Amino acid sequence: MIKHLALAAILMAGVLVGTVTVQAQGRPNFAQFRQRMMDRYREALKITKDDEWQAIQPLIQKVMEARMQVMFAGGGPRGFFRRGGPPPDGGQQANRPPRRRRFGPPPMPEAEALRQALDSNASDDVIKAKLAQYQAARKAKEAALTEAQDNLRKVLTVHQEATAVLMGLLQ
Questions:
Q1: pTM of this prediction?
Q2: Which residues pair with 28 in a beta bridge?
Q3: What is the C-alpha to C-alpha distance for residues 43 and 129, in angstroms, rounded to an integer?
Q4: Cα dihedral sign for 49, 50, 55, 56?
Q5: Which member of 10, 118, 127, 164 lies 3.0 to 4.6 Å from 170 by CB, making a disulfide possible if both were Cys?
Q6: What are the tens digits of pLDDT across the range 112-149?
């Protein structure tokens, strides 16, 4: 959990430092951010041949996507991206739609179900069942991350693997 929070902090620091450009609508351009990250990985891993990069890049992308799924499996650390949780009326002030997160994948349905059970003061048995479902879904996402990292590790040299570990791509 601490590793995930630290990784989230590192990602957000990169965003705050200005690695993400802002489009005319005022929204971050994550495609450009992702491309800059890929360029940094390619440079750090010292991949100069295009055909080698074409083989490695999709594996890096899968690791990044799986890592985001694990990090934000519960909708992200509450308070990290917003403070104090949702408004008391669930974000329906003045007939406005509920707030949406602007970063990361959508929360898992199991996380939403658990959150709803907690918010509605469900019985301990219901919460225990929802918690077990959430934990099983999160373990599946963690297994997918491990598999993506193992697939990337198979195509890297020892030097590249060590660099990838230091960059947080591999554990």
A1: 0.65
A2: 22
A3: 46
A4: positive
A5: 164
A6: 899 899 999 999 999 999 999 999 999 999 999 999 99
Mean pLDDT by 10 residues, the chain (171 residues): 55 48 54 88 93 94 90 58 46 51 70 90 92 92 94 94 92 87
Cβ contact 92:98 at 8 Å: yes
CB-based burial label for 31 (10 Å; 0-12, 13-18, 19+):
exposed
Tell me how long the chain is: 171
What does the chain look like in DSSP terms, one character per residue?
-HHHHHHHHHHHHHIIIIIS-B-TTS-B-HHHHHHHHHHHHHHHTT---HHHHHHHHHHHHHHHHHHHHHHTTTSS-TTTSSSSSS-TTTT-GGGPPPP---SSSPPPHHHHHHHHHHHTT--HHHHHHHHHHHHHHHHHHHHHHHHHHHHHHHHS-HHHHHHHHHTTS--
The amino acid sitting at 57 is: Q
